[in-house]
Amino acid sequence: MDIFLRPATSADVPEIVAMLADDALGAGREDPSELGPYHAAFARFAEDPNQRLLVAEENGEVVGSLQLAILFGLSRQGASRALIEAVRVRSDRRGAGVGSWLVREAVELARREGCALVQLTSDASRADAHRFYERLGFRATHVGFKLAL
């Protein structure tokens, strides 16, 4: 694969949003026709050095994306951890190894940042994604809860 990881730019927002909306769950919660809220969220990324919106680029095209957040805490003797969110691969590139490559790159970036662990959440209905993360070495060691506000 001729692919590399880079920070997203505001010009990437439409492509990232299209990937977020391109599945059963995303179709019900994303609105690619109204990009204003997404650009506002992107601007917040630029202000926080511990938040990264990253894209996988292949042959000049965005083929994947994820968010990597560095979290600081007191537990684990003050260890930092990385949180991976919103992993997406363009539908025509799924199954080609892009997702595995993207997550492995994010894990290495977290390691270079001194994180003691990497965590992520995945919607309970995404059985295929769960198998994908397990193949990459992640383990379902905790139960997660969310509260919509």
TrEMBL record:
Protein's UniProt keywords contain Oxidoreductase: no
InterPro entries found in the cross-reference section: Acyl_CoA_acyltransferase (IPR016181), Bact_Acetyltransf (IPR050832), GNAT_dom (IPR000182)
Domain N-acetyltransferase, chain residue ranges per copy: 3-149
An MF annotation (GO) of this entry: acyltransferase activity, transferring groups other than amino-acyl groups
Key word Transferase present: yes
Superkingdom field: Bacteria
Matching CDD domains: NAT_SF
Pfam families: Acetyltransf_1
Protein name: GNAT family N-acetyltransferase
